[in-house]
Amino acid sequence: MTFVRTRLALDRMQPGQVLLVRMKGDEPRKNVPRTAAEQGHGVLGVREAGEGVLEVWVRRK
After folding, report:
1. Sign of the dihedral through C-alpha 12, 61, 35, 26
2. CA gap 21, 24 in Å, rounded
3. Residue 60, SS3 per DSSP
4. What is the H or E stretch that residue 13 is in?
5. Whole-angstrom Cα distance, residue 2 to residue 51?
6. pTM of the model
7. For 14-44, how does the pLDDT look when each residue is reduced to its tens digit (9 = 90+)?
8. Maximum distance among all alpha carbons in the chain?
9. CA spacing 20 to 30 A to 14: which of 6, 21, 25, 58?
């Protein structure tokens, strides 16, 4: 479900804009960066933000 929300947000953005996605849970941690890259978006960075939160920066293609 996290990537569905991420994709909807990316669809509303202009090419080149950057989206910050904050998430918890093992499945989104694996799927969001992988799926974004598979769809041609740039994964600019990933970092642990504490308390189990992962932040991922995605640049829209």
Report:
1. negative
2. 10
3. coil
4. none
5. 18
6. 0.93
7. 999 999 999 999 999 999 999 999 999 999 9
8. 32
9. 25
